[in-house]
Amino acid sequence: MSSKQGGKLKPLKQPKSGKKEYDEHDMELLQKKKDEEKALKELRAKASQKGSFGGTGLKKSGKK
Prior knowledge:
The chain is mainly alpha-helical. The termini are far apart. The relative contact order is 0.06. InterPro entries: TMA7 (IPR015157). This is Translation machinery associated TMA7.
């Protein structure tokens, strides 16, 4: 038998990173992002209830 191993070697597992330390500026940005996502979600829900905008849209006449 040869000393070389065949096949693909598995990558070594990376150690899990600890929890990040956030300062006040980072916390503000995270809160702002959460608020924006919440507002967008509410708008999407509201828009889906109403249906399409403007009803039928542009009507084309039969004349040419």
